[in-house]
Amino acid sequence: MTEIQEERKVTAKERPQIGVYVCHCGINIAGVVDVVKLKDYALTLPDVVLAREYKFMCSDNGQKMIKDDIEAGLINRVVVAACSPRMHEPTFRLTCKEAGLNQFLFEQANIREHATWVNMQDPEGAYEIAKDHIRMAVAKSRKLVPLQVQKVKVEPSCLIIGAGIAGMNSALDLADEGYKVYLVERSPTIGGHMAQLDKTFPTMDCSACILTPRMVDVARKKNIDIMSYSEVVDVSGYVGNFEVTIMKKPHYVDQEKCTACGACVETCPVVCGNEFDLGMSTRKAIYIPFPQAVPGEYTIDMGKCIKCGICARTDVCEPEAIKYDDKPEYVKVKVGTIIVATGWDLYDPTELKQYGYGRYPNVITGLQMERLLSSFGPVLGKPVRPSDVKPPHSIAFLQCVGSRNFREGGHTYCSRVCCMYATKQARQYKEKHPEAEVYIFYMDIRAFGKGYEEFYESAGENYGIKYIRGRIAEVYGGKNDSIIIRAEDTLLQTPIELEVDMFVLSCGLEARADSDKVSSLLSIQRSADGFFMEAHPKLKPVDTLTDGIFVAGVAQGPKDIPDTVAQAKGAASSAAALMAQGEVEIEPYYSVVIEHLCSGCRSCQSLCPFGAIDFDEFKKVAVVNPALCKGCGTCVSACPSGAMVQNHFANFQLDSIINVALKQPTIENGGK
């Protein structure tokens, strides 16, 4: 039965009896407009049989007021004039449901964000706008029809895309609760960027000492299927029933047979740059990314391999694990939930020509400095200048490279971690070379976390690190590959020319280059900064707008390790809560097809952003999958024959809003 048919059935059965409830919202609404007058105005509108005002309608007392009126049979429609529906629509819908009224016979008028908050200097104007919103909500409520939620079964398993510190923590939490986890990582090993770090601020704990046990825990969990060197290539289905195709890229080494003895590496004649060390060390064509890698089996880089066959010889590889003819393997899994923890890319400062990156060998990025400081890095934790492999006697750091400076090709947002990792690296170097001069050029120091401010202050007081407020205008090469910096100290308002042995760019974090691909695969949105967008910045920070898909870590936005782990646990908790229900409710805001009007043009199918529309070849009509449809209305607006109707937002309901927005029907003029 279509919604239009439901509307005819319901209106024939009973005439709407609408109750309007005006919320003071403390002084947010009542401090700007006269809520008593708004209540009295609501009583003049057609089919409004009662109106009330209360200080906080969302409170228990406010909800009880609505319940009592429903249970007494006084009303069969509810309109609440209050705040944004994003905040309390679920609250009032549940109130209606508990009182025995269909929860979709409720409408909310947003008179806080749309009236009082934006018109505090114009109370009269705010009052008129509030009247408009109440009038439109009442008009739509007259046309509301009962709708029923659908329930679908939920698979008790989760796909996690990305196996950095966020993905691993989510996987461990879900596995501990008994759920099957498919942990997909595009690189040959899990661990993510945290594996590249030496120490973590502000405690100066060894990063590997924290991370490696977690990696081992993940590998030991029976419920976690590590799918490293793999990529998700297709996702279909809907919340609770996602069907995922994963491509396992060929390692060219049998991962079951390989014993990681290393004999193949010793005999391999091909030497190439090591991506893990950002090109500052070399590796062979057959390799393990880093010593503590999990899984610990070897992979052949076929882009570098010359296929000499040496590693495949039985006197080199006794288990005969080398497989030159290895092919991609496609695995299909069915999961109930998905967590996106794809992490981040480092901003590439090459385009910022004024800083000399790529032109001068002793200009490096913060992540390169991190590898130089690492005890298992290219120089075993004893940083040297790339030009002459000698320890620098002076180092300058520049903050906000690629962050907070979109005019120079960077991003508008703060990457949050750069101030602290520069301070950490400066402190580490001073610990090893107390006589060295270390400078940090900054715009603002943002030490936002627990213990961060104390960490920053101790760097200057206890280690002699010099902080200079000001942007660097120009960098050019000096004698012996030194770096000459020209800047201004904005506190002293004096120009500075400084010569240092090494210059470190504290580059910011940015969304991964493949975020577009992931966004398209999962039908999730990205915010203006390129990171994946959460459903609500306050109330749903780990949910996405696609039910059953959650986001964690820097994939959602820049953050440090503690916040990443906290959000990963939040995402795991949300996924577990959904799977624990066994079934999930699908809101009925989906579109339906009036088959006798459908011409079979398939316009709706090609435009649907959620892939929710199929085509019935026998009937030659469109078919909507309610579980996939998100009620965006694209198909409704695109349908040339008017065959698409969206529940709760049908044309006759929207027309009622438009009509009363242009004129003011009241009881006195007959509601016309």
Number of domains: 3
Give the radius of gyration.
Answer: 31 Å
By DSSP, the count of extended strands is 34
The low-confidence parts are 1-12, 666-672
What are the SSEs and their pairings?
Blueprint: H1 3-13, E1 18-23, H2 35-42, E2 48-54, H3 60-71, E3 77-82, H4 85-98, E4 106-110, H5 112-116, H6 123-142, E5 150-153, E6 157-161, H7 165-176, E7 180-184, E8 199-200, E9 205-206, H8 207-220, E10 224-227, E11 230-238, E12 241-248, H9 263-267, E13 271-273, E14 282-284, E15 286-287, E16 299-300, E17 329-335, E18 337-340, E19 345-346, E20 363-365, H10 366-373, E21 394-401, H11 418-432, E22 437-442, H12 452-463, E23 466-469, E24 472-477, E25 483-489, E26 494-500, E27 502-507, E28 509-510, H13 515-522, E29 549-551, H14 561-580, E30 583-586, E31 591-593, H15 603-607, E32 613-616, E33 621-624, H16 634-638, E34 644-646, H17 651-662
Parallel strand pairs: 1-2, 1-3, 3-4, 6-7, 6-18, 7-10, 18-29, 20-27, 21-22, 21-27, 22-23
Antiparallel strand pairs: 5-30, 8-9, 11-12, 12-17, 13-14, 15-16, 19-28, 24-25, 25-26, 31-34, 32-33
Helix pairs in contact: 3-4, 6-17, 7-8, 7-14, 10-11, 11-12
Salient structural properties:
single chain, 672 residues, alpha/beta, Rossmann fold, FAD/NAD(P)-binding domain, 3 domains, 5-stranded parallel β-sheet, 17 helices, 23% strand, disordered C terminus
Describe the protein in words.
It is a single chain. The protein has 672 residues and is α/β, with parallel strands linked by helices. It has 3 domains: 1-149, Rossmann fold; 151-249 and 328-344 and 513-586, FAD/NAD(P)-binding domain (3-Layer(bba) Sandwich); 345-510, 3-Layer(bba) Sandwich (FAD/NAD(P)-binding domain). Strands 10-7-6-18-29 form a 5-stranded parallel beta sheet. Strands 20-27-21-22-23 form a 5-stranded parallel beta sheet. A 4-stranded parallel beta sheet has the order 2-1-3-4, with helices on both faces. A hairpin with a 4-residue loop joins strand 32 and strand 33 (621-624). The longest helix is centred in the N-terminal third of the chain and has 20 residues, at 123-142.
